[in-house]
Amino acid sequence: MTTSYLRKATKADLPAILAIIGEAKEYLKEQGIDQWQAGYPTNDDIEKDIDNKISYVLMVDGKIAATAALWPGQDINYKNMVEGSWRGNPEDQYTSIHRIAMSSKFRGQRLSEKMISGLLTISTETGFNEVRVDTHPENIAMQKVILNNGFEYRGIIDFEDPNESTTTRYAYQLYLD
Q: Any transmembrane segments, and where (predicted)?
């Protein structure tokens, strides 16, 4: 039987996380998706996530299978919704899932859903009942993972990033009981 669980990332995990991010960038490129093709996320982004204790890894039989960041509080990137709207009060606090990536060695095993499920548990355990996530309009696989985890499509956000050629993202929201 396979053992899997989510835990906070440590500095010792950095090489494995950076390798997974690199594989994800290559995977997106192979699919013709321009997400993460201009430098983001950088090594510094990942290190800051670890330092800020918002970086998590999915462990599968003792190996790091996936990584993601879970940001607490309001996300500036979600302020500029150009189509659609968020549910709830604009002042509400929530968590945001960012930089989710799966190791190529574990791709196709539906582990992204386990990763998100773990992040949802952490969200409720830390006092947040609203979770938001976004993805590139062409990243159909991630859109399916997001929807399969109960998120509701809320619209389109746009953010400024000189390193990204496409700054439009599909935005999703989930309320937890």
A: none
Cis peptide preceding 90, ω within 30 of 0:
no
Percent of the chain with pLDDT over 90: 79
Q: What are phi and psi of 148, to 5 degrees?
A: -65, -15
CA dihedral (133, 20, 36, 95) in degrees, to 10, reads 20
CB burial of 33-68 (b: ≥16 within 10 Å; e: otherwise) equals bebbeeeebeeeebeebbeeebbbbbbbeeebbbbb
**Alpha-carbon span 132 to 98, nearest angstrom:** 9
pLDDT digits (tens, 9 = 90+) for 59-79: 999 999 999 999 999 999 898
Residue with tokens 């389109």: 156
Domain count along the chain: 1
CATH of the domain at 20: 3.40.630.30
- The pTM score is 0.93
Q: What pLDDT score does 36 carry?
A: 86
